[in-house]
Amino acid sequence: MTDTGKITVKTLQKMKQSGELIAALTAYDFFTASFLDSAGTDIILIGDSVEMVLYGAESTLTANMQKMLFHTEAVARAVNRALVIADMPFLSYQTSLGDAIQNAGELLQAGASAVKIEGGWKFAPVVRAMVDSGIPVMGHIGMLPQSFNKTGGYFVQGKDEDSARQLMEDASALQEAGAFSIVIEKVAADTAAKITESLEIPTIGIGAGAKCDGQILVVNDILGLFDKFTPPFVKKYADLKPQIINAAKKYIEDVKGKKFK
Questions:
Q1: 4 near 11, Cβ under 8 Å?
Q2: Class of the 9-256 domain?
Q3: Three state DSSP letters for the chain
Q4: Which residues are catalytic?
Q5: Res 1: pLDDT
Q6: Among candidates 73, 87, 86, 228, which has minimal Cα distance to 146?
Q7: What percent of the chain has pLDDT over 90?
Q8: Cβ atoms 148, 154 nearer than 8 A
């Protein structure tokens, strides 16, 4: 964008209208967030993927509010331009509207400008309650990492007519409830394209083809720093793991060889 000012939810809407694609990445710490912000990233998401990427968990389910608040504060301190969005962890918004609003509000107090929740039409009332309380909400449909036990794994959604129709209904309900954007994860490309075309709010794809209004990936994946599980749609833009290991080996050699100064 020619405007280098702070990205807001209204900025994203203007980007969709103008056809400018939205570039989003995750970050979990001050330094990474500052680098991504300097590079011109439009959205920086503190994802509950932090549980897998930084803490070595098998899923995102063990992320909690304490951790999300901790990492949100660190990221928010580093960012000047990008829109900072925090994931709401499992069970932080599913139990009651009161809890959902309280927890979302705490993430905004920690420095986020918006929150993201997973789920379709069933969570439209949650989105509406948050938005009515002054909390911008990004939706998330398709493959839902917090629901992988229910679905039995991580599968591409929207491949058949019924599934595609349900995703369209989910997206429409979230938009009507006041969501300012929707992440579409691991959805058949043609279905994601139809959803994007049908909505007035921008869509951010992850493994959902090239026709969404933007894309998001986990920063550790694109840097080659997380190889425990790499989705097939991820593109590595750097391979830092061997460089870090090599640097550490050279340091160790200098120390052991009494060459360190």
A1: no
A2: alpha beta
A3: CCCCCCCCHHHHHHHHHHCCCEEEEECCCHHHHHHHHHHCCCEEEECCCHHHHCCCCCCCCCCCHHHHHHHHHHHHHHCCCCEEEEECCCCCCCCCHHHHHHHHHHHHHCCCCEEECCECHHHHHHHHHHHHCCCCEEEEEECCHHHHHHHCCCCCECCCHHHHHHHHHHHHHHHHHCCCEEEEECECHHHHHHHHHHCCCCEEEECCCCCCCEEEECHHHHCCCCCCCCCCCCCCCCCHHHHHHHHHHHHHHHHHCCCCC
A4: 185
A5: 45
A6: 87
A7: 89
A8: yes
Ramachandran angles phi, psi of 3, nearest 5°? -80, 120
Residues 213-259: tens digit of each pLDDT? 999 999 999 999 987 777 788 889 999 999 999 999 999 999 999 99
Domain ranges of the chain: 9-256
Token duo for residue 123: 């969570």
- pLDDT, tens digit (0-9, with 9 covering 90-100), for 28-65: 999 999 999 999 999 999 999 999 999 999 999 999 99
Could you tell me which of 159, 165, 105, 166 has the C-alpha nearest to residue 132? 105
Taking 70 as the threshold, does the pLDDT of residue 14 lie above it?
A: yes
Query: What is the token pair recorded at 75?
Result: 């990221």
Average pLDDT over residues 82-101: 97
pLDDT above 90 for 71: yes
The structure tokens listed for 71 are 């990492």
The alpha carbon of 159 is separated from its chain's Cα centroid by a whole number of angstroms, namely 23
